[in-house]
Automatic annotation (TrEMBL):
Tagged with keyword ATP-binding: yes
Enzyme class per UniProt: transferase
Catalytic activity: a cytidine in tRNA + acetyl-CoA + ATP + H2O = an N(4)-acetylcytidine in tRNA + ADP + phosphate + CoA + H(+); cytidine(34) in elongator tRNA(Met) + acetyl-CoA + ATP + H2O = N(4)-acetylcytidine(34) in elongator tRNA(Met) + ADP + phosphate + CoA + H(+); a cytidine in mRNA + acetyl-CoA + ATP + H2O = an N(4)-acetylcytidine in mRNA + ADP + phosphate + CoA + H(+); a cytidine in RNA + acetyl-CoA + ATP + H2O = an N(4)-acetylcytidine in RNA + ADP + phosphate + CoA + H(+)
Protein name as catalogued: tRNA(Met) cytidine acetyltransferase TmcA
UniProt keyword annotation of Metal-binding present: no
One GO biological process term: tRNA acetylation
Region (Disordered), start-end ranges: 159-214
Chief place of localization: cytoplasm
UniProt-annotated location(s): Cytoplasm
UniProt-annotated binding residues for acetyl-CoA: 543-545, 585
Length: 774
């Protein structure tokens, strides 16, 4: 078996079509690595265009550890060798599949395919979360991966143990039978491709006849799609415009964003670029800086500060999404790269910008949450901005129909979608069936897997290939669903947590991180409850209902069915739980389904910008004891954290979180405190005389099922009394004419509070009577 000749044949086919080919070398690790050097030699690529992604050291080629494979995103190589023996994960494949250039070769080193599903690795070890062991981890994802490698076009498989070539992969993947497969001479490689293998004779697109952006920007475009997108982005020169650019990975949308940003800066615009991280947006800054330099408009490029300045006061600057959502320094234009990886709340904040461009990956490892295409589209349509859509389909680095791209989509389910709308649009709680979808059932039914995983993708702003493997193989995860006429219409991913032994609980209490037990970990390590990991719980990791059947009660039915199942479970489940980025709507949803607030995080999520809420729904006495003590502790510490780390929390989030808490804070004011509160409410007193008394009453008022205050008064209680914000800021935010008006409103609010909670208190009643008799 001549691996160099096989690689040479694949490279010839790849260059002829300007596509890529995938070569699988299946065998023991040392044999795989030796064969990889033969493959690189046969591929005839310069050393600096070859990358080995492996935990092993000692290569003359560029070597990147698998856990750092993301460093190659945005770059290209002619040959990428991926070692799947150690530190391998599905995310590594997702990252590397787009790095290989057109005409190049992706080499995957695997254990023998027949036994790959039984092979241990560091990723599989990571799935063995306590109390489970490695023996509990499945091999379904690896079996699925092996099956796709054996059947997908453009994939060659060489079995190093038997010395045979199972498939040659050069002509679309037909089976080769054995090592006698014809290995043709490759010296006559097709020369219609460009010298760097990218263009494959593709002519650069012609700039539009009329354009406002510099001609150099259009001359930098590599495809007609990119040129058309850039032309559409010219709309952002004026106010009131929104442009949505959709593309799969590798279509050049980030480059288009950079060319647009540079063009706008050259025209004097202040352009704010945001993304989940600067690394996602770096290409936009490289492109904008290069364009300004070419047109003589570049003043400076500060890479460390992430700012590109143009000579006529225009600039391109970066801010992380939570900060950018506040529109700092009033930008003229906002460009949101990898918009699909951001939650809807943040995306909606950008609609207040004068003009905004959204660049979103349709399928891809960076984040393909359908929240953008499903939920956010409604808000964009309702905004004051005029929206224009443009889609980019032509790949930049390789030709359409590339088999490596289509294989990665298939293997990693990057194109997973829920059922089409007409199949589930008339679903109701009465028409659906509750089902436990086993891992074997999901692995054996590709249609079912696509529908279930497609909905889970919809539920979260970022879903990665690793999540597919966890779904199929992690022993702590399980799937529950509602189906309508056989189609998944609502789905929940559950994680078993707790039930940990004393030694594990002790180590967690002392600072060790215990994977796969998010709620017990927070309760134990942060909230100092060493017994919190004794009860067994199931956390709802994600829940989603098909957008065509939303607001029909399906999510609530699914949660009720899960509760009934777990309450009757022989294994003994003590509680259900959930943790998520808190919004008023989500807090109300979970409270309506029986979950009570036990914690608000004191730091915002870096991507979503939300404070996280933890909520529990107890099923047993042990679960109720856990919920009750943490609900009581939550209310006890809330005044303190609202005055410091949660001082900027949304008052409606605070209102909803307190109301959803199962505990009731006591009203234990002294007679003197009651007199001070009554004096401030009905007389000349001031609340600053005894602020703690006012805080305790505020918490009780917010917690009441029959609130004594209006929603506006409750926001005033949160902002001023609990968060201690300055009067001018409170008056401005809540719409009072002046701080004095806000002060009067606070007195009126406490008048209602006194009537509710002080009517039977002698000190309060007598003090109030003094003022009412005057």
């Amino acid at each position: 078996m001549d691996i160099a000749a096989l690689a040479r044949t694949l490279r010839t086919a790849a260059r002829r079509t300007n596509q890529r080919r995938l070569l699988v070398l299946a065998g023991p690790r040392d044999a795989d690595l030796d064969a990889a050097f033969d493959a690189v030699a046969g591929a005839d690529a310069p050393d600096d265009e070859v990358a080995f992604v492996t935990a092993r050291e000692g290569f003359r080629f560029e070597r990147v550890r698998p856990k750092h494979a993301g460093n190659l995103l945005g770059t290209t190589r002619t040959v990428v060798v991926c070692d799947a023996h150690e530190e391998f994960s599905p995310n590594v494949v997702g990252r590397l599949a787009g790095v290989v250039d057109g005409g190049g070769l992706f080499v995957l080193l695997t254990p023998p395919l027949d036994s790959w599903s039984e092979t241990d690795g560091s990723f599989e070890e990571s799935l063995a979360v306590p109390p489970f062991s490695r023996a509990d981890v499945g091999g379904r994802f690896r079996a699925r991966l092996a099956e796709t490698l054996r059947t997908h076009p453009g994939v060659a498989v060489a079995d190093l143990e038997s010395g045979t070539v199972e498939r040659d992969g050069a002509d679309g993947g037909a089976a080769a039978g054995d090592e006698d497969v014809a290995i043709g001479d490759t010296d006559d490689a097709d020369d219609t491709a460009d010298a760097d293998g990218r263009g494959h004779g593709r002519r650069p697109p012609t700039p539009p006849r009329t354009h406002s952006f510099p001609r150099a920007a259009y001359e930098a475009c590599l495809t007609a799609d990119q040129s058309r997108a850039l032309s559409t982005l010219e709309r952002l020169r004026g106010d009131g415009e929104a442009v949505v650019v959709e593309a799969d990975r590798g279509r050049g949308k980030s480059s288009a964003a950079g060319l647009a940003a540079g063009s706008l800066a050259a025209a004097g615009k202040d352009v704010l670029v945001t993304a989940p991280g600067y690394g996602n947006a770096r290409e936009a800054f490289v492109r904008s800086s290069a364009l300004l330099a070419e047109t003589g408009s570049l003043e400076s490029h500060d890479e460390e500060a992430h700012v590109v300045r143009a000579v006529d006061s225009g600039r391109v600057r970066f801010a992380g999404a939570p900060t950018a959502a506040t529109l700092p320094e009033d930008p003229d234009v906002v460009l949101v790269d990898e918009a699909a990886a951001l939650p809807v709340r943040l995306l909606s904040s950008f609609l207040d910008a004068p003009s905004v461009g959204f660049f979103t990956t349709v399928h891809g490892y960076e984040g393909a949450g359908r929240g953008f295409s499903v939920r956010f589209r409604d808000r964009l349509a309702e905004s004051d901005l005029s929206a224009t859509d443009v889609r980019m389909d032509d790949p930049i680095r390789y030709a359409r129909g590339d088999p490596v791209e289509s294989w990665s989509f298939r293997a990693l389910l990057l194109d997973a979608r829920p059922a089409v709308d007409p199949l589930v649009a008339d679903a109701t709680p009465a028409s659906t069936e509750y089902r436990a979808l086993s891992k074997d059932e999901l692995a054996g039914d590709d249609h079912l897997l696509h529908e279930a995983f497609g909905l889970l993708v919809l539920a979260h702003y970022r879903t990665e290939p690793d999540d597919l493997a966890r779904l199929l193989d992690a022993p702590n995860l399980s799937v529950r669903a509602l189906t309508h006429e056989g189609h998944v219409v609502s789905v929940a991913l559950l994680a078993r947590e707790g039930g940990l032994d004393a030694e594990t609980r002790r180590s967690m209490y002392e600072g060790a991180r215990v994977r796969g037990n998010m709620l017990p970990d927070v309760f134990t390590s942060q909230l100092r409850d060493e017994d919190a990991a004794v009860p067994v719980g199931y956390r709802v990791v994600r829940i989603a209902t098909h957008h065509a059947a939303r607001s029909s009660g399906l999510g609530s039915k699914l949660l009720a069915a899960i509760r009934a199942e777990k309450a009757a479970a022989a294994e003994g489940v003590d509680y259900l739980g959930v943790g998520y980025g808190a919004t008023p709507e989500l807090l109300d949803f979970w409270a309506d389904n029986g979950y009570g607030t036990v914690h608000l995080s004191t730091t915002r999520n870096d991507t979503s910008g939300e404070y996280s809420a933890l909520m529990l729904d107890p099923l047993t006495d042990a679960g109720r004891e856990l919920r009750d003590r943490h609900a009581e502790w939550f209310l006890g510490r809330l005044s303190g954290v609202l005055a410091d780390p949660l001082r900027d929390a949304d008052p409606d989030v605070v209102r909803a979180a307190v109301r959803a808490c199962g505990a009731v804070p006591p009203v234990d004011l002294s007679d003197r405190e009651w007199r001070i509160v009554v004096g401030a409410s009905f007389g000349p007193g001031m609340y600053v005389t005894a602020p703690d008394a006012f805080r305790r009453l505020a918490l009780r008022a917010l917690n009441d099922d029959d609130p004594p205050c209006t929603p506006g008064e409750e926001r005033l209680l949160v902002r001023k009394v609990l968060q201690g914000r300055p009067w001018p800021d409170v008056a401005d935010e809540l719409g009072y004419h002046s701080p004095r008006n806000a002060m009067k409103a606070l007195g009126d609010a406490y008048g209602s509070v006194v009537e509710r909670y002080g009517a039977d208190v002698d000190a309060a009643a007598s003090e109030r009577l003094r003022f009412e008799e005057k």
